[in-house]
Batch of 2 targets.
Target 1
Amino acid sequence: MNLCRCQSPARNQGVKLIGIGSIGLGVSEIRVRKRKRLREKDLKALSDGLLSATGVEVIGPKDTVDIAEGPDCELIIINNVIEGMIVEGRPFPTIRGLLRNIAIKSFVTVDMGAVPYVTNGADVMAPGIVEVDPDIKEGDMVWIRDVTHKRPLAVGRALVPAEVMAVKTSGKAIKNLHYVGDKIWKYDER
């Protein structure tokens, strides 16, 4: 239970208990269905896919890994936290997965002016990009980070290759698929 200090007309100060049920209402609209535990063979393939996409080992030897159907993609649940997703057959970490294991590949850095828009779900526009991983190709999954703290803000799909992203002066460069504060992010705040 969470404690909340509040003013009441009868007393100057009081403590109001707020139950978990009242906080969690409407927090997450995501529906996770058909959750199943991965077998060793499937786990190895998934782990290799995440390693090739990010450059870091995302799944540890003692982690429990499940796959479930999400709203728009399959979700990778590691130790009961959604830490990855599979979009068009390609695995990629969610923001929580990137916070736990900072990737060294597939990043796009945006300036601080773009941060409020990206964290509200807007696609990334080319003028806001300041740094790009040179190995990104059109259609690749990428993670977006801010220039100051280098923390993950969103996950998206590249609409143009890295060479074009670096020099493009107008238009969309990345389609935003998952961002801080969306349904996947809020699912683990319950």
Target 2
Amino acid sequence: MPREQSAGAVVFRLESGQAEYLLLLYPSMAGKSRSYWDLPKGHIEPGEKEEDTVRREVQEETGLRDIKLLPGFRELITYSFRAQGKNIFKTVVFYLAQTNEQEVRISFEHSGCAWLPYTQAMSYLKFQNAKRIITKAHHFLSRQGVPGRQSNPQGAGAHLQRGGQAHRSPQGVARRWQRA
């Protein structure tokens, strides 16, 4: 069975002292019934270090350049999928990355993004592996003294960006997303 190795990040920022996590909307493709939310990640290039892949992929997929990888967080997930008639075994290593940037420029690979508090991020995620990784990241941050909003019934703090639609920032300023 062919194997793939990727690296990605649980990207977060602090909004009013609370952790918000960046999720990307992956569009539906042939063989997939619908779009889904997930974390930024991508293939490790030959000779590339995991951390370098994380920085490159986050920048390519989100436009975020100012990220800091937090020491002490490195988690692996594995799964299998089918592509071009072959079963592929994939390993993805995730790091925890903090940014001060809010403006995201999604790549052509995605159709939207959202900054979400933990509980909302969990409700958006489809795959159990992603839920497990973001839960581990959230607990890691909690142990570091970073508070996280547990719930957000009115959607305050949720910053959605989709296909050219405006979204509201916490200050009420409308912005449009931009592709990289």
